[in-house]
Amino acid sequence: MSTATLNFPQPLTEKHRPQRIQEFIGLAKPKAVLRRFAKGPYPSAWLFLGSSGVGKTTMAQALAAEIKAELHHIPSRSCDLETVENVVRLCHYVPLGGGFHLVLVDEADQMTLPAQHAFLSKLDSTAWPPQTVFVFTANSTQYLEDRFLSRCRQLEFSGHNIGRELPRYLAQLWKKETGRNNGLDFHRLAEDANMNVRDALSRLELELLAGGVEAEPSTLDRHKSVRTIHHERAAKAVATMKRRAVEEAKRKQGG
After folding, report:
1. Is the pTM of this model over 0.85?
2. C-alpha dist (Å) from residue 197 to 33, 56, 70, 203
């Protein structure tokens, strides 16, 4: 007896989540480095550094898939001493598939100090668990000790290159979802999301759900429009006064 497959709707952030390293938008250097690393992986520690929503965690998951690693994911604010000891213990077993373990620690800058100190010893060459790659993500290095940072290869995830590609990416998704080439200001959408890919996709999802119905201007936008009108009127008034003064001066000289 066959079982029917139910296709439930997905948020855009999940539906279009990159599965491979080359599928990410922007992030030229991280992609180049990690593609090369994935061809010949080795035990190492990495720090993916950058603002929220630029793809650090998803990139780590894509890396795990490409090197066929068994993934151990420690979510944000869940990394304490006990968690570190447990995950490192698991990494001493042969990984599923026989390749690598990949330990992903989200928001490593928020892990407890004992956890950070535990990693200092685990990332030492004498105590490193076999066939294990560590990936830490962080928004900042403020709470990470220099000794910890010195043990990691730091990759910066910058929104600069993303900003150049994000509007085009949003337009492609819009066409894929609606079949239309136009309908939105994708540059404005990307700017409103501060070039945050996750936020931009959430905003695009709202536009898709709205079905093209435009939102009313917010109170802030209305006030901004009123201020703009006042500034324009004031500028015109000043320009008119200057023009009349010049004309009056010329008449006096002619007289």
Report:
1. no
2. 21, 11, 27, 10
| Average confidence (pLDDT) over 173-197 | 88
Beta bridge partners of 47: 136, 154
- DSSP output for 78-98: ---HHHHHHHHHHTTSPPTTS
DSSP string, 144-168: S-HHHHTTSEEEEE-HHHHHHHHHH
CB 134 within 8 A of CB 4: no
Radius of gyration of the chain (CA): 27
Please tell me the distance from the alpha carbon of residue 137 to that of residue 157, in angstroms, as a whole number: 10
pLDDT at position 111: 96
Q: What is the mean pLDDT of residues 159-178?
A: 86
Q: Looking at residue 98, what is its pLDDT?
A: 82
- 12-157: which CATH architecture? 3-Layer(aba) Sandwich (3.40)
182: Cα separation from own chain's centroid: 25
CA 211/CA 214 separation, integer angstroms: 9
Q: Which pair of structure tokens corresponds to residue 211?
A: 């079905």
Ramachandran class of 7: left when φ > 0, alpha when ψ lies in -120 to 50, beta otherwise? beta
pLDDT band of residue 126 (cuts 50, 70, 90) is: confident
Among 51, 45, 193, CA closest to 132: 45
> Taking a C-beta distance cutoff of 8 angstroms, is the pair 91, 133 a contact?
no
C-alpha distances in angstroms, 13 versus 53, 123, 166?
10, 33, 14
| Cβ within 8 Å of residue 203, ≥6 positions away | 189, 192, 193
* Mean pLDDT calculated for residue range 167-180: 90
